[in-house]
Amino acid sequence: MIQLTNLNKTFGQNIAVSNMNMTLTEGKVMGLIGQNGAGKTTTFRMLLNFIKPTSGTITWNDQQITQNDKQRIGFLPEERGLYQKRTVEEQILYFAELHGMKRSDARVALKDWMKRLDVVGKVSDKVQSLSKGNAQKVQMIASLIFEPSLLILDEPFSGLDPVNTSLMMDEIIRLRDNGAMIIFSSHDMNNVTKISDDLTMLKRGKIVLQGPVQNIREQFGRTRVYVESSTSSAALKAIDGVASVTPHGVGYDLILSEEEAGHRVFDLVTKNGYIPAFSQQPPTLDDIFRQEVAIHD
Amino acid sequence: MTNQLFIVIKDTFLSQFKSRGYWMLVISPLIFAALAGAVIFGITKMQGNTTPNIAVVGNQEVRSILVQSEKELDIHVSNITNEKKANTALQNEKLDGVLTVNKNEATITTQPKSEQIPKEKITAILGNLSRSQKATQYGLTAEQTADLVQPYNLKSVVKQAKQSTNSGNTESANQLIASAIGIITIIIVMWYTSMIANAIANEKSSRIMEILLAATSARVQYFGKIIGIFALVTTHLLIYVIAGFTTFNFFKENSFVKGLASNLNGVTLSFIIYAVIFVLVSVALYLVLTSMIASLINDNAQVQQAIQPISMIAMVGYVFSFIMTQMPNNLLIRILSYIPFASQSMMPIRLVTHTEGWPAAISALLIAVITLFLLLWFGQGIYARNVLSYSDEPIMKQLAARLRHK
């Protein structure tokens, strides 16, 4: 378990991270969200010991993180970088060796990873000859090949197409199921929802939301309704507690000002019997993100 | 950590060693030397037989002596002894010269296409012969005559505090080596500072450094890079030593190689060891300095900006080594001979010219070694602080700021 306790980081007069408390647990994925400059990368850099916190502590199983511990950390930086003139094998073996993996084991594992991530090319190909997508996959292999105990991913899905995003997600979930601690940042709330067990939202270095994803969503109430019925838009809008009605396909999306208004909507649309769809959900992470950003501005 | 350091050293070394660029660096001077050798060899061959063919007329005794001295004088004495026949042969370019010896004088006649005739050596032989004949006329004994023609012997001795050295034997060879040190150091510094700066700039600008530092410490990267590149330098020099040794053995019967070998006969082993250690320590110093400055680079385009001041520092010692030959006791030059980064181009020359003795030479080397360790220790902090920070400020301004906040 990794514990960040009362963590602060300032650069001159600028507060990058303020009084952060966070726990990373084995077998759990933590999504770290926030606008640009919210302090996500600074948090990662402190976790990686690139920079020292101004105050506060970071411990791994109640011990300070040592150089040996760092060998068990996989890191995918936001700005991807590989040795362009080296072959895939040369650089992956180098990174794997630095993480304490035997060269012979890494060589075998690399072939397996190339297949698993469907990399088009050979291990003897130079990175400069690979397509951007395949180079990104090689970068991922560099971070994952040694089966890290802690995986830090800074915008792992940026620049990936949906198929490769899905491949990446599968690997993150597989590592989580094998007991790794995973923390990642993303601006894509849909992806965050899909793979995060826990969520931390930062706003100007401060935590504004934290907890299991479903709990966070539930605490905002089930204020989103999707309904398919013959009831008119005007009739839906006239219900007490309905803030907005937006056509969506063959139905309507309703935003409620209070959760209880859902009962009134349900009663009205089912007055004449069967309807094909009615769903009352908490707001999406995207909605919550926008709402929180607006509130704290 | 030791294992990680070894991995970084190995990667730094092998990634360069396997590159085409490194081998171009190693081979290009060898190709240049081979081409120069081939040109010299070709010119020599094209010149054909350059030994002048001379006819000696008018004095049989002189002719006999010159025949005996053919090898020493590098001449061929013709069978022609008749003056008329000799002049005809000269006109027909069959001879390079006709030496006509009269009672108290001699005349050497040549034609426009004549090979070079060693006139001074011939004059010396004729002079000795004349003095010897006159001594006999004056009734001097053979011993008196020999004593009279004995040339005056002027020995060159340099007086040092504790010992006197015969400078003539070793000085020229050692001076040759000392001058070579300055040139070799400059070339190696130019090549390898550029190499280490590019390696660091590449990893920093492409953000590979972040992946590396996620697994290792900045300290491991810093020492790994320096030791890896330093290993390349020693390998490079070792390749030249092996190439030189092989070439020497292959061509040891060649007259040019023989001449060179006799010139280098006087090189002392202690001086060679001293010079090699000094070159290696100095190159290491420059690598450490470059690593510190290269950690401030944002992208590869700034590499030249980073290594320019380093090249200039390397040139200081080299330039002053020339000034030193004119004013070896100038205070500034004496001080510079002990200052690391310049001392490698100056102190070995001062040692071989006996301007300084071994205590001073060892002191300068020790100062360089101590500075190397201090700079290594100091540099790791600079490197760690800057290798992940990116600034648009000019590199030297950044370095000055970092040094102020050390």
Estimate the mean pLDDT confidence of chain B.
Answer: 84
Strand adjacency order, main sheet of chain B: 2-1-3-4
- Distance between the terminal alpha carbons of chain B, to the nearest Å? 25 Å
Order of helices and strands of chain B: HHEHHEHEEHHEEHHHHHHHHHH
Biggest interface: chains and residue counts?
A: A-B, 27 and 21 residues
Measure the end-to-end span of chain A: 33 Å
Instruction: Give the DSSP E fraction of chain A (strand runs of 2 or more residues).
Output: 25-35%
- Helix fraction of chain A? 25-40%
Overall shape of chain B: elongated
Q: What structural class is derived from the secondary structure elements of chain A?
A: alpha/beta
Helices and strands of chain A, in order, run as: EEEHEEHEHHHEHEHEEHEHEEHEH
Number of helices of chain A: 11
Query: What is the total number of structural domains of chain A?
Result: 2
> What value does the Rg of chain A take, in angstroms?
23 Å
Multimerization state:
heterodimer
The gross shape of chain A turns out to be: globular
Q: Please tally the β strands of chain B and state the result.
A: 6
CATH architecture of the largest domain in chain A: 3-Layer(aba) Sandwich
Helix content of chain B: over 70%
Fraction in beta strands of chain B: 5-15%
In the sheet with the most strands of chain A, the strands line up as: 6-7-8-3-9-10
